[in-house]
Amino acid sequence: MQIVTASQMRQVEQSAVDAGISLDHLMENAGAAVAAQLENDFGPLNGEQVLVLVGPGNNGGDGLVIARILQASGSDVTAYLMSNFGHPEEKLELATNTGVQIARFATDASQHKIRALARDATVIVDAILGTGQNRHISPPLSGQLEHINRGASTGKTPIAAVDCPTGQNSDSGRMDSNGLKPDVIYQLGMPKLGLYRHPTVEPQNSAPILDIGIPRGVRSGSQISLMTEKDVMGWLPKRRAVSNKGSHGRLTVVAGSQIMSAQRGWPSNLLRVRVPGWSHLPLQRTYTV
């Protein structure tokens, strides 16, 4: 699976559009996939309070779809509009018609409401900026995020980020000091480079990359790939009912250095360790342990 930058992901989405998949369809798929994953990770959410933080642009549109689907499934959802502009009006109307409660930063001058909502929710969905974060977070957004962080801390409310946490650059991985620290990240379509350069969640809290309907064969142009469990399982020989330790192939480890080699102890005929002769030279020596 290719790991992409924000611009490469935009290229992938455009290629999907060229193949006949609309951006609206991708957004609906993304919202449905995240809603299902939220139910799996934090559910059942029927009757539970869910706070969806909605920013401008496509990430906010994803958030409104998530809010609508969860509300229709029985959750008590509040969509908090973090800005006064840029929200997809059609998605906002559909969410409102489904019963999603709409709260607005414009009418929450003291920001007591957002802090209380963050405190009392079962889960907070961060759909503010996504991969669009490319500059330092400043007021008024920094003040909003501070109140959300305080409310979440008081209520011990987990934060689930949609595609990329607010405050983290999806290319460099740099995390703004005013950002929202997520408990889990739901990456959409393809994994984002910055989230592996500087991870903000523990590996056990990394959700699978969610399918949003990118057609097979669409390529990003990225030269970096993510090795998944599915990839590894495809490389391993099938295990027979009657077999022994030598029946299932041999392992080569490319790692370490001349001084710090791999740990010994494996059967010498099953493991080969390849390390560089010197830590600053190209791979040139082979040791069998």
Task: Explain what you see.
By secondary structure, the protein is of the alpha/beta class. It folds into 2 domains: 6-205, YjeF N-terminal domain (Rossmann fold, 3-Layer(aba) Sandwich); 249-289, no CATH class. Helix content is 33%, strand content 14%. The chain has 8 helices and 9 strands. It has helices at 6-18, 23-42, 57-72, 89-98, 112-120, 141-155, 194-197, 229-235, and strands spanning 49-54, 76-81, 101-104, 123-127, 159-162, 184-186, 251-254, 271-275, 285-288. A 6-stranded parallel β-sheet has the order 3-2-1-4-5-6, with helices on both faces. It has a 3-stranded mixed β-sheet with strand order 7-8-9, with no helix packed on it. Helix 3 links the parallel strand 1 (49-54) and strand 2. It is elongated, with a radius of gyration of 23 Å. The two termini are 32 Å apart. Residues 278-289 have low confidence and may be disordered.
What labels describe this entry?
alpha/beta; 2 domains; 8 helices; three-stranded mixed β-sheet; Rossmann fold; disordered C terminus; six-stranded parallel β-sheet; 289 residues
